[in-house]
Amino acid sequence: KNATAMMPGQMELDSLMIRLLVAKGQLREASEYFDSHMASTLPSDPVVRVQMMRSLSDLGRDEEALALAEAAFLERPGDLETATDLIRIRSKLGQTEGLQETIQSLDLSSAADHLKAVSLAKELVTGGHYQPAHRLLEAVQKQDAGHPDALLALAELLILEGFGEAAQSALNDGQFAEDDPRRLALTARLHVLRGELAQARVVLSAIPGAKEDIDLILLDGRLLESATAFDLAEQCYQTGLSRHRDNVKLTCALARLYQQTGHYAQSMALCENVFRQDPRSQQAWLIWCESCLESGQSVEAVSRVSDALGRCLDGGEDARFLHNMAGYLSVCTGNHSAA
User: Fold this and answer.
1) Cβ–Cβ under 8 Å, residues 240 and 247
2) Torsion of Cα atoms, 160 then 161 then 164 then 169, to 10°
3) Range 58-84 average pLDDT
4) What pLDDT score was predicted for residue 209?
5) CA 180 – CA 45 distance, rounded (Å)
6) pLDDT digits (tens, 9 = 90+) for 127-165
């Protein structure tokens, strides 16, 4: 704040200020800051245009960001960096019809671009955008059919979609060593997909450094929960948190376990820890609200969600999620007219 006051008009500082406000959950203040400090800037310079576009995307004002992303891509067709911004925003908006053409136009001639494209595909998978992720991985494999990172990402995506045989085929195509930890991790997940929980734990135990890897700790915890070994699952998550203090994924997993086993106060306390790091965590909001409902604190849940809605931008992703949560709480409490 002091830097932006001393050096007004510095786009990089303004963008950083917006990201900080968004990270603190102050979306309305962040949007007002953009409108007063950045909106009047003419986005004729490519660097300025990208900064404005990314700030708008951070704010959830994706329709406005899309126009700038499209302009940037028209200036540099086939460029992976500008395409990445465009693909991210179109995916968030659910505009998948234009993604195929964008992906097909990409210049993926270098090994570095292959890795960047695979990284973007994995990011899309995390956001639930499976179709464009498939297209990106296909584009990489057209350049390098045996690209190991692309095959691993494809196998992971196919497992998420429930296609175990296709995922196994992708792993076989990669010709990975038997003790490759990446192959072993996906093999464990394939066992889970097939319902072979004991075999999955055996494979996990053979992976070097499994107790340090957050995703593998989470997988082991879920396996223990599936076997109703809740005490061991709790110990698994707590041990993970002792190594990765305040990790949001592990904290939410433990909070969910406490919520499902009736330890509501502990679950809600862990969610509060997450909110201090990430006030926008949808997973923590869902667990916290369910713990409130199940422990007879529905009034507090409705009040807090309403307060959070008042701080959100209308039409933004956070507002849509909280509106859904408010409707869910209303249905659960019998207030169907409000829902």
Assistant:
1) yes
2) -90
3) 89
4) 85
5) 46
6) 888 999 999 999 999 999 999 999 999 999 999 999 999
Dist. CA 125–CA 132, nearest whole Å: 9
Hey, what amino acid is at 231?
Answer: D
Q: What percent of the chain has pLDDT over 70?
A: 94
Query: 34 to each of 20, 39, 42, 76, 288, how far by Cα in Å?
Result: 12, 6, 13, 26, 31
Residue 313 DSSP label: P
Residues in the chain: 339
287 in Cβ contact with 256 (< 8 Å): yes
Least Cα distance to 24 among 57, 73, 58 occurs for 58
**d(C-alpha 115, C-alpha 259), whole Å:** 39
Mean pLDDT over residues 63-75, rounded?
A: 90
- Output the average pLDDT for the chain: 88
pTM confidence score: 0.77
pLDDT at 3: 45
Residues 6+ apart with CB under 8 A from 36: none
The token pair at 279 is: 């006030």
